[in-house]
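On clarity, I found the account of how folds are encoded harder to follow than it need be. Since the whole study asks how a given chain folds, the encoding of that fold should be made plain. For illustration, here is how one protein appears when written out as sequence plus structure tokens:
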Amino acid sequence: MMVQVRQFVPRCIAGERDHGDLTVSFDGTDPASLTCLLTLKREQFNLRFQAATNQLEAPSRIRQVRRTIAQIKTLQSERAAKAAAQKA
């Protein structure tokens, strides 16, 4: 399952990357998604601290990171449910 994410996403996501309209294809592979999830969680933590100290330059970035994390977690849970259904 491929998901098109139309926002800035770190390079840790596997797949295609088109810098023209900021499109990233993400296939949800486990090692890549785990690495990317950890990177995004760290970025989210840093953004929270920047917001608390009034040093945040792009407030919209918090929302983008939060939604990208949700998309990765959704893909992981869908893959887990699909794998569990195949085993049963």
